[in-house]
Model the fold of this input.
Amino acid sequence: MDFRISPAPFTDATVSVPGDKSISHRALMLGSIARGRTVVSGFLAGEDCMATAAAMRALGVNIEQPGPTEMFIDGVGLHGLNPPTHDLDLGNSGTAMRLMAGLLAGQAFDSVLVGDESLSGRPMGRIITPLTKMGAAIESDCDGTPPLQIAGGVCLRPIDYELPMASAQVKSAVLLAGMYAQGRTSVTEPAVTRDHTERMLRSMGAAVATEGSTIALDGGQELTGCAIEVPGDLSSATFIILGTLLSQDTEILIEKVGVNPTRTGVIDILLAMGADIRLENQRHFGDEPVADLRVRSSQLHGAVVDPDLVSLAIDEFPALFVAAAAAEGTTTFSGLAELRVKESDRIAAMADGLRRLAIEVDETPDGAIVHGGRFGGGEVESYHDHRVAMSLAMAATVAEDEVLIRGVDNVNTSFPGFRECVVTLGANVQLA
Done:
């Protein structure tokens, strides 16, 4: 499936975006190993999260979906999961695979985690290493990629692990495995990463200690099911923010967006580039901070992006590349090596897409220098990466001519209804 987009900027509106993907994954997993029922509202029913739901059901958990964005999870307790009768297919989701590996490392039964072609090429050594240190028995392909074969019946031991890279997925995998270890497990981060796992564990009754950059918990703690209201996903809202900023004389209010401070690097970067973004009606959904985002069209300017903000905006850099391309002057990105091992090599994918739209981009090993200009028309590749596809779609709304984006099927992994949403805002996006 492709997008054919004719230039048409956004118009004034109030809109909402689907629920947070990271929180939705964690609600399914933690709700499954809690005691009692967890009721989730605002759930993201995208392909990635539905793959996690299917995996938990295969492990014996009763999960009902009474509405499109609701999930009722009847938790089985820390040791109540059952052996699966088949491989657990996690589709395109790196988050699901890495967190599930931590969750399954301490079970009494064997399991196998598989994924689609893209996921099967993503590095899993970063979780295999710490989990093996804890006593887990995990086998992968020779290059450390899926499938992952996890042997059950091992006795996990606690570790004090220093992350070699900033990764919420690795941190969460170790903490989930630590729930099954005898003693205290700690993880020390080189930079702050999203803390949804820690917040949700606490909301379900676990004692999780945070001291500086170190997060620690004791194994064996029982979790209790609870009500979880999932805020709108800031990563999805970023595309609406971007489209608004690139438009002329437009103001859009995006309601109930999660603004967890470990996720708001994208807002900080855009503000530094001259964006008009305001947080209104700030409140909490459980332990998660939420706000309505009021965004106005803005003339952006180039900037040197602070590498310290990378871990706080890791999923939003494809959109930030487009913002830089529309800005006056030059924007320099560095410290983005992690982007090369996402659903695609996102540095290379965005550099290629922007060049095809007449933007000058100098690619570097861990980033890029983007020279602001005007988007031309043409044909671009998404590399079957949902965030690349949606970012280039926003560029196309203000391009000088029609843009064809190839391979947009994966948009549904994180933003189901994306095309319909942006069409209601004035964009001219056709399926081709």
Q: What stands out?
A: The chain has a mean pLDDT of 97. Residues 21-33 form the longest helix (13 residues).
